[in-house]
Amino acid sequence: MLDKHIRNLRKILREILTLRRFRNSRKNLIPYKLLLILLLPLLEDNRNLNLALLLLIIVFLEYLSYS
Q1: Which PROSITE patterns does its entry note (predicted)?
Q2: What is the pLDDT of residues 28-37, one digit of tens each?
């Protein structure tokens, strides 16, 4: 069950990493990409994975990408 969640989170993170620009702005998502790159190793080690924190960060980044 946890493996399925980890695969889904990896997919979401990859999708966010491929975003090039904010929807209504020309700003790059480079700082957010760097943050997510730093978070990716957490997905490799299940013991250190805090799903709640990671999901909050993803939701926040999604909100920023559409604001």
Answers
A1: FH2
A2: 555 666 676 6
